Amino acid sequence: MKQILLSIRMLLRFKVYTFINFTGLVFSISCALIIARYIHQENNVDHFCPELERTFLMTTVMDNGQTYLSGSIDPNKDPNYRNPLSDPCVEKVSQFMLFSDDYVIVDGRRFTVQAMATDSLYLDMMPHPVIAGKHTLNTPNDAIITYKLAKRLFKNENPIGKTLKVSTGDVVTVTGVIDEPSTKASVQFEIIISKNLRNSWSRMASELVQLHRAEDVTELNKKNQKPMELLAYGKRPIFYQLTSLKDFYMNHNLLVYDKVLRGNRTSLSILTIVAILLLLVGIFNYVNLHTVVMLRRAREFGIKKVFGANGKTIFLQLYFENFCLGAVALLFIWTLVEVTRNIVTSWFEIPVTSDLSFDIWISVFLLLGMPLITSIFPFIRYNYATPVNSLRSVGVGGNSIVSRMIFLFIQYVVTVSLVIAAIYFSRQLYYVLHYDLNYKTQDIIQCPLFSKQTSWDITSDEEWQVQQQKESANMELVQRRMDESPLFSQWTYGQLPILINPPSTQCTASTGEKAAMTINFVDQHYMEFFELKLKEGRIWDNEKDQFAQYKFIINETAKRVFRIEDITKATLQTERRLFYTSGMNLNENPPYEIVGVIEDFKMGHLSNPDYPLAFCFSRADHTNPLLACIVPGKRREAIKYLEDLFHEINGDGEFCYSFAEDDIAAMYHDDQRTTRIYIAFAMIAIFISCLGLFGLSLYDIQQRYREIALRKINGATARDIFRLLLRKYCYIFGAAFVVASGVSYIIIHKYMENYHHHAPIALWMFLTAGFIVALISFCTLWWQIRKAIRINPAKVLKGE
User: Exposed, middle or buried by CB within 10 Å (0-12, 13-18, 19+), for 28?
Assistant: First the structure.
């Protein structure tokens, strides 16, 4: 207790330095803690599963090595099928199907939801907290909804027992309400319905598998590696494998057609580096200023050693001083973290679900570990110095000047590096958002007017005919309304070109070249709608082209990759046929003639290269979103027109739409977030560095008041004194700028190597970063230098 009281007295004695240390610690550790909690959350996705180590997802491995999330059921009763889950090591299997952008109808109003059709085993294996009702599906017409959806659908009413109509046309009853799990989940849903509600669903179920022992997965996967030629895969050799649920969130080698959350390791790596840099800035700032305080206390430690104080006594005093400051700082750190949580979530988009155990462990580390780290250097500095040297160092910089300048140098290197990165990534973001994609994007709106089929159950021919008649009538309605409206210059159905998938089909050209290729089905209206530019040959003609034809339109990259010189003499052969029609020989797969070449346009993220692409002919499918080009200046009227059309087809409900520019910007969501983080935290790093610079200069300049007084008596001008006091800091900053520029260039260049399209690294970025940090640092020093210049020499010398 005596040590703690003494430590508090010492901290109050040097209150200016204590305040600067305190502020720097709070800001640096708060920022690092916010990022650390987010990184911890991202690395613990799906950890709410109690048996995570022995829980797996079923995947299908194709003969080309691609792996897909899938199920292993055999609806065709194929004689070549071998059940991969017949092994006794399998304990539980839950089948689930995800329907993103599905809908439910409550009291005649339609709501867009993320639905899952599954069984009660799913919530047994992936338990969510139950708020009301139960978490089991006892009958096919039971439904379980999330708390957020309950508030959306029923406001403050009790949802248990309420009925709603799902997209299959069935009426289900809400029997349970569940909350968010304790950690983030990769599989997201708002409503769970029973897979027994229908006999036939529109997609294959995925499978969640639990083994008796986690180590059994190796033997089971080895057993299932023998390929099967199944009818469901067009007699293509495949085999089934289990992949760990624990690694699923970050596993981008696993292809997923359903809408699930996926992590970004690159983004986490960047955030980790930023957190470490901010922590370093804070620690160096603290140790540097603590060294200044120790200089002013050198006589105290010298006298203590003369009277017999040993190393343990000195270390405990230093430790308890840092402990007291750290304890108060920790209180403010957690306050700042919690107060800014909503701001961090909305602005930086790094939402965090609190993990009490992690928060406690990191608090213990900060409370006990940080004082240890910050006490080591001062302890070594003064414990091994003789009392005579300690007493002599009063008022003298000694060797500690070198250490202080080194710490300040490192702070500047980190700060300038962060500012350079912030400027470059801001430039990169501007570059990708304004890149010419080589197709039309202005005033293009997309909105789904027709819901995708979730079930193929047809009870009778009459039901099928009624369904077809209704669908045809709605399609004719859309055709008539869109053609007669003056609000749109063009319209069609389809996906934006930027959403076209990467290459997945192996092709061989008549030239002998082989490569993977992206193949998409479009028609004449689609190509004209986006104004895709023709290089040679022709585009599709809806009057003469048809679906089952062996013709391709390729892009320039495909022509170059396959070394095609004359398209009239070249053909492309796919490894397997792309379509099936009645009466077709399944073993036949003729080569495709090339009828046209279009200019390259950008598909996917700009970090990706230009892919070989081929267009097959297929008329626009109304199950895709409607794409419409709005007449300039008519956006508001066009949105209202489409909303009315949506309600006429689907009834009252939520109308969803987006613009092409927004969807393209959404692809660079992580880039935008990274840029915001860099800019914000670079400014915080500058602030912390300037705090340290202020504290150091406050001590150094005050130590030189006698020298300044003597120089003024001997005729030194204000300019001479200004140059004298600023020179040392200019040298430090200049050296730090050179090092930071070199380090930043190497890191940025290395990071952007995998980006096939990126902004160039320019000299002005480094100079701008240096100017910003230098200007703010100069403003920090200006007040103290100006105060030193205006001192009264007589008063200073009299004091001496």
Answer: buried
Q: Which tokens belong to 451?
A: 């819901």
Say if residues 619 and 547 touch (Cβ distance below 8 Å): yes
Phi/psi of residue 180, nearest 5 degrees: -65, 145
Q: What SS3 string covers 70-118?
A: CCCCCCCCCCCCCCCCCCCCEEEEEEEEEEEEEEEEECCEEEEEEEEEE
**715 Cβ contact list (under 8 Å, min separation 6):** none
Q: Report the alpha-carbon distance of residue 70 to residue 461 in Å, rounded.
A: 31
pLDDT digits 0-9 by tens, 677-731: 878 878 887 787 777 777 666 666 766 777 777 777 777 777 777 777 788 888 8
DSSP 60: E
- Give the whole-angstrom CA distance, residue 272 versus residue 573: 47
Count the residues in the chain: 800
**Cα–Cα distance between 355 and 376 in angstroms, integer?**
31
CB neighbours of 751 closer than 8 A, spacing ≥ 6? none
- Could you give the strand order of the β-sheet that contains 444-447, starting from the edge strand earlier in sequence? 488-493, 626-630, 444-447, 658-659
Distance CA 23, CA 546 (A): 71
User: Which segments of 704-762 does DSSP mark as H helices, in order?
Assistant: 705-713, 718-751
**pLDDT per residue over 732-749, tens digit each?**
889 999 999 999 999 888
Closest C-alpha among 123, 122, 116, 108 to residue 171: 108
> Distance from CA of residue 730 to its chain's centroid?
39
- Helices and strands in the chain, H and E counts: 24, 24
Measured between alpha carbons, how far is 548 from 435 in angstroms, rounded to an integer?
36
pLDDT tens readout for residues 535-594:
999 999 998 988 888 899 999 999 999 999 999 889 999 887 777 665 556 567 888 999
pTM score: 0.79
401: which residues sit within 8 A by CB, 6+ positions away?
none
How many Å apart are CA 331 and CA 534, to the nearest integer? 65
Q: In the structure encoding, which two tokens stand for residue 436, read together?
A: 């010419």
